[in-house]
Amino acid sequence: MRSPFLPSQPSPKLVFHSFIVSAGTPQKYDPTFKGPIYDRGCTDIICCILLVIAIVGYVVVGVVAWTHGDPRKVIYPTDSRGQFCGQQGTPNEKKPFLFYFDIVKCASPLVLLEFQCPTTQICVSKCPDRYQTYLSAYGSRTPSELEYYRQFCVPEFKNLQKAPIEVLKDKECPAMIIPSTPLARRCFPAIRAKKGVIMVGNETTYDDGRGRRRNVTELLEGAKKANVVLETRQLAMKIFEDYTVSWYWIIIGLVIAMVASFIFIVLLRFLAGIMVWVMIVMVILVLGYGIFHCYMEYAKLKGEAGSDVSLKDLGFQTDLRVYLHLRQTWLAFMIILCIVEVVIILLLIFLRKRILIAIALIKEASRAVGHIMMSLLFPLCTFFLLCLCIAYWASTAVFLSTSNEAIYKVFNESACQFSGQTCKPETFNTSNVTKLCPDAQCLFAFYGGETAYHKYLIVLQFFNVFMFFWLANFVIALGQVTLAGAFASYYWAFKKPDDMPAFPLFSSFGRALRYHTGSLAFGSLILAIVQVIRVTLEYLDHRLKAADNKFAKFLLSCLKCCFWCLEKFIKFLNRNAYIMIAVYGTNFCTSARNAFFLLMRNIIRVAVLDKVTDFLFFLGKLLIVGSVGILAFFFFTQRIKLVQDTAPPLNYYWVPILTVIVGSYLIAHGFFSVYGMCVDTLFLCFCEDLERNDGSPERPYYMSPELSEILLKGNLEPSKSADSQG
């Protein structure tokens, strides 16, 4: 008996049909069929052409964005003339900080609408370190005082003898300067609290330079509006500092996770049954230790001051270590782990017989992976292509968002009919605006434009997001159909592994690109459309958070739920459709229909076998992530005495711990995804094998003897009486 997957061989007498005659009925044996892998043609050619056109258009959009874009607009702050502060090769090269003439005006609601303070902003070499008014500096007998003050005036201001009233009227210098500190390259008032009283220096009030005393709280309000993400930036800087001192330990943790995953997979290849039970016991023990540790921490905090404060009363804190000093935190952790432990134990009790069957399927998958060891490294190829998609999307998005031109608008303190209109700084002083509105200024507002390119920037951004989803899903689909084709060649080899192709993984990859690019593009296009709709709904939900329309919120929540379910269903259907494409070479719609009805005819087997193996793989990932996570927790919290002095000092030790946990999960998921795809492929092929063959000498099963010994027992054995009636 030779494999139907090999070319240049005579047609085998006992193989399966290449297409489904009737989607709702089992398959019929066809002795004239000549092999499903090599006798195939290109599928869904129209979708392939559409993908190529879309990629060409995407490249054009990227080139145009890179031509017009300027990422410096994101990096450097911009003064009132649209010039970058601190940019090399410009007059502001040695002036990296942005200074606000009157930061109190930043408290205006206009800031949130235009993202620009209605006050003059200039680039300075350093932030002011003293409190001073222009009147006091002008009246000082020391020339150095006025010279110091002049560095906070507009660059064109040279006439130090000019009357102060004229200087302030022309807005050439700020009325006063106050002690400031740089934050995100912007000068903010050095405000501090002393015994609950907000102060600048040692004063609670200040002279605004125009003869009025004002409260320091006005400065605070202006500073908050000038940078609405002030606290977020501080948190981000601390997190960045933690990464700079712990990045190599994070890499070591991820390497440990990778080695542990690889060893686990290798052991699974030779000791599948033992490893599954060891994995189950280890998961239970790890969760048990977590419950014990949470109880010990809960008991240790009993009687300590402040440990009985509730999480609700404490509120949100950026320093998460505060929560670890609360008994309620450890009680919540303990309850969650207890629930997970009980659920897992109950599932193991009720599924104990099915786990034996799932282990048989995993053993068969281990043999398949053992014959195609390169499949363990194939996720790296998928990961690399996904990184390219993400990098291209991110860079294009940045260049598109920074490809606007500087737009200037009229800003004023009093009512003015020209307020908010665009203006030109070169001709503003000679226009009628200054005559009708004496206090009006022509300041840089934002980056925009009036050309057709600028008007359709939002459309280009939408196209950028859509293409990212399409290409990312295409890359994932390519990986799935490649692995499915390789593992299918193992299953349908009658003499394993003699009848397998020499390089099954590379052969499958070549077939997928040569014949089925259109089908993969079709499936990923449908999924991308649903995902874009979900993103749009999330955006609308974010915009409607402040609205009081309860019906709109309810309708939006229903739509989000429906499209979430639709996305999950399409992912499931696509995955099985790609397996059918890899085996039969049919187009996407036919493959999706055949896969769906095949699974529906074997719905009990799907629930019993496929999902139980998914549960076991989840336990494997949980074991690796939990073990590495516990190790990272003890290391970064300096609880391992042997390496206590080696752990780096951190602002938030949860930063590297969470990074290691998330990274470990992604690594473990990458390794187990190969096994998952192998099990899904073998399971679908097993269902096909049952429908096409009956195990007789004329129509033998293609499954291995070890697999048939367990899978064909009891309820899983197909009804021969039904076959005889058919």
Automatic annotation (TrEMBL):
Cell compartment(s), UniProt: Cell membrane; Mitochondrion outer membrane
Q: Name one GO cellular component term.
A: plasma membrane
Answer whether the UniProt record assigns the keyword Transmembrane to this protein: yes
Keyword Cell membrane appears in the UniProt entry: yes
A Gene Ontology molecular-function term?
A: antiporter activity
Quote the InterPro entries the UniProt record gives. Answer: Choline_transptr-like
Q: How does it sit in the membrane?
A: Multi-pass membrane protein
Catalytic activity annotation: choline(out) + n H(+)(in) = choline(in) + n H(+)(out); ethanolamine(out) + n H(+)(in) = ethanolamine(in) + n H(+)(out)
Transmembrane parts of this sequence: 45-66, 247-267, 274-292, 330-351, 372-394, 467-492, 513-533, 577-600, 612-636, 652-672
| Pfam families for the chain | Choline_transpo
Name the major location: membrane
Keywords, in A-Z order? Antiport, Cell membrane, Glycoprotein, Membrane, Mitochondrion, Mitochondrion outer membrane, Phosphoprotein, Transmembrane, Transmembrane helix, Transport
Which family is this protein grouped under?
Answer: Belongs to the CTL (choline transporter-like) family.
**What is this protein for, i.e. what is its function?**
Choline transporter.
Protein name per the record: Choline transporter-like protein
Query: What broad taxonomic lineage does this protein's source fall under?
Result: Eukaryota, Metazoa, Chordata, Craniata, Vertebrata
